[in-house]
């Protein structure tokens, strides 16, 4: 249904290991990673096919322009099932209608919650043998590629088309240029600051979700649920740490505001000690209202408890609503509802997928056309309703989106601020994200606020 589940990210050190494991070594390291690898060479991809690559600036552009046919477009992604597969199918159907002369080679890498693809891409890019483009979280997640000078500036060739610069809000534009220049095209947005709820349960408990003003107040609401119904206060999974990491980030955002949230992503941990420790304590306070089997179930199994009336509240990205929409008789605004996570009204917390433009591109002109299309109204109108996400463009018609996503589109368009996901690497680079994940794993294993905070102080070092 979604690619929400988290694998551990690979640190900066692993980029170098990936380079050493590949068929071509990376020379002329820029900072910690490579630039180099000039000239044409033939290598074997992870899928086993041979690919001829040009210079690091896409040196085969002239050949492609002179040819009557575009070179084949190779796009790698991890959308191999559920809503992701349906969405990417719709995307490429639309692209083929616009550009029937471009052959598309989808080369998906399933499994590992996207981690398998990330490993393949790191090896291929550092070996100067990238695909034409690939599914990638934007923002700081792409920072190592930018620092290694592996991504092309597409501010003029792509972002100056389709009114993209005016149709995208500032948050999505910011994550598209992690090094100050546009290098990728976001195609969707999954909102993270959601609080979902079973309407019958909260009504029976006498709780109004919209009236909960800040995360710490949610504790009293959950207590009221458990005192007045047979449901638990909050459905949650702690089998893996990522759900709790997401939850903590929204608590920090809602309790202490955007400035504190952003300061944390900039590594200002000790300067915000009270806010960080208080937010950890609030999540620990939530724990007494989790389902008893939280440590042994998945997020989808936790979400079923909301559908079945066994839980009042559920925090998750808006991919969770895909389960509600597919459930007969469980309708938005009558059986289930959603409000922005307490304290985050007017803010849209972003998780996104994008398609970058690598240097040394095997099909630069075809890739340019593909990324231009991904940034268009037509592409985002086809892709997002099936994915259960909303477009980063604010001018996409709402006709094909249901009532919940239409409301999310309105919230995004009217949002005063858009913040980047910590858990998905938009806000913090891979090594810091890996350290953050280790700290949150410590938290969910022992619920020790002081020990977790101590680890977080070292996460950005």
TrEMBL record:
Residues annotated as signal peptide: none
Biased composition (Low complexity): 40-65
SUPFAM superfamilies, alphabetized: Periplasmic binding protein-like II
Chain residue ranges for the region called Disordered: 34-71
Pfam families: SBP_bac_1 (PF01547)
Name the UniProt record assigns to this protein: ABC transporter substrate-binding protein
Native species: Halorussus limi
């Amino acid at each position: 249904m979604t690619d929400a589940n988290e694998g551990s990210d690979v640190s900066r050190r692993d980029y170098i290991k990936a380079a050493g494991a590949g068929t071509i070594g990376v020379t002329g390291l820029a900072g910690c990673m490579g630039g180099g690898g000039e000239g044409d060479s033939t290598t074997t991809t992870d899928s086993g096919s041979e690919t001829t690559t040009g210079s690091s600036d896409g040196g085969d552009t002239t050949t492609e322009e002179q040819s009557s046919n575009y070179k084949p477009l190779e796009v790698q992604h991890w959308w191999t099932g559920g809503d992701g597969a349906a969405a990417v199918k719709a995307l490429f159907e639309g692209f083929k209608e616009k550009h029937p002369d471009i052959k598309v080679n989808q080369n998906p890498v399933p499994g590992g919650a996207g981690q398998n693809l990330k490993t393949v891409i790191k090896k291929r890019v550092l070996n100067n043998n990238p695909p034409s483009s690939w599914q990638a979280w934007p923002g700081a997640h792409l920072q190592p590629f930018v620092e290694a000078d592996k991504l092309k500036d597409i501010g003029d060739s792509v972002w100056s088309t389709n009114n993209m610069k005016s149709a995208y809000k500032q948050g999505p534009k910011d994550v598209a240029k992690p090094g100050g220049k546009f290098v990728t095209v976001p195609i969707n947005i999954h909102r993270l600051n959601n609080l979902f709820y079973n309407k019958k349960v909260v009504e029976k408990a006498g709780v109004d979700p919209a009236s909960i003003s800040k995360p710490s107040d949610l504790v009293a609401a959950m207590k009221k649920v458990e005192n007045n119904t047979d449901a638990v206060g909050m459905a949650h999974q702690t089998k893996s740490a990522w759900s709790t990491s997401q939850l903590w980030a929204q608590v920090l955002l809602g309790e202490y505001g955007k400035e504190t949230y952003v300061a944390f992503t900039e590594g200002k941990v000790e300067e915000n000690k009270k806010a960080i420790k208080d937010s950890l304590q609030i999540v620990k306070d939530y724990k007494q209202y989790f389902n008893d089997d939280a440590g042994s179930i998945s997020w989808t199994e936790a979400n079923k408890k909301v559908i079945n009336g066994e839980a009042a509240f559920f925090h998750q990205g808006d991919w969770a609503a895909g389960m509600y929409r597919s459930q007969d008789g469980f309708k938005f605004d009558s059986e289930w509802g959603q409000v922005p996570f307490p304290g985050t009204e007017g803010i849209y917390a972003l998780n996104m997928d994008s398609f970058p433009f690598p240097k040394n591109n095997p099909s630069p002109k075809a890739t340019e056309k593909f990324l231009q299309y991904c940034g268009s109204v037509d592409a985002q109108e086809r892709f997002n309703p099936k994915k259960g996400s909303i477009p980063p463009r604010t001018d996409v018609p709402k006709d094909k989106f249901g009532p919940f996503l239409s409301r999310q589109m309105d919230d995004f368009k009217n949002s005063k601020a858009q913040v980047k996901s910590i858990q998905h690497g938009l806000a913090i680079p891979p090594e810091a994200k890996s350290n953050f994940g280790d700290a949150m794993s410590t938290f969910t294993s022992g619920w020790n606020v002081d020990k977790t905070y101590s680890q977080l102080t070292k996460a950005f070092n």
